Amino acid sequence: MPYNLKTFLLYFILITLCISCRKKETTSVSGTSQDSVAQTPPVEEVVGDCFMVVTGKDSMLMQIVIENNSAVGQLHYRFYEKDKSGGTFFGDMHGDTLIADYKFMSEGMESEREVAFLRKGETFIEGYGVEEDKDGRMVFKNINSLRFSGQPMQKVDCAPLSWYFAKK
User: Fold this and answer.
1) CB 74 within 8 A of CB 84
2) Cα–Cα distance between 167 and 163 in angstroms, integer?
3) For residue 100, what are the β-bridge partners?
4) What does the pLDDT read at residue 167?
5) Residue 116: which pLDDT band, with cuts at 50, 70 and 90?
6) What b/e sequence results for 109-128 when a residue is b if at least 16 CB atoms lie within 10 Å of its CB, and e otherwise?
7) Which of 5, 36, 94, 161 is most buried when burial is the number of CB atoms within 10 A of its CB?
């Protein structure tokens, strides 16, 4: 009988060691175990397309994602010797024209205004027109009378600009 007890204890210890070695670590990551993190399917970061124009010392950059005629993205204006502004927009494509609400920071204040861009092939051209204040945000008085006369923003590779569009 002592032989069986020793054998039993030896097998018990070996099985316990094997089980503990094979057990996955579940260290906590923000309140979730690594098992649950590993089971979560990876989420692809949606980058979209990037556009840019540089005129002299001024520049404008846009990152945009268009899906089912809805558009979201970021827009940044960098004018020489003026305060920079940048923020996010969301809107709709009406044929080849984007009409969007643009929330941005400039001079330490958050503002909101309507923006318009005409898509021509691989470019976007900003639209200008008479604006009016409507409930604290600037909107175009008549969208049908917009002039798309600015320099076209050319499509560019987003990779070199990724640091620029990264959330800060």
Assistant:
1) no
2) 9
3) 91, 115
4) 55
5) very high
6) eeeebbbbbbbeeeebbbbe
7) 161
Q: 102 and 141 in one domain? A: yes
Pairing of strands 131-134, 137-140: antiparallel
Same domain? 93 vs 54: yes
Q: Is residue 147 part of a domain?
A: yes
pLDDT recorded at residue 23 = 42
Q: For residues 37 and 159, what is the distance between their CA atoms, to the nearest angstrom?
A: 27
- Torsion, Cα of 140, 142, 145, 151 (10° steps): 10
Same domain? For 24 and 62 the reply is no
Q: What is the pLDDT of residues 45-103, one digit of tens each?
A: 556 899 999 999 999 999 999 999 999 999 999 888 777 889 999 999 999 999 999 99
Cα 119 from Cα 125, distance rounded (Å) = 7
| 3-state secondary structure at position 119 | strand
Print the domain residue range for 22.
2-39
| SS3 at position 18 | helix
Same domain for 89 and 113, yes or no, is: yes
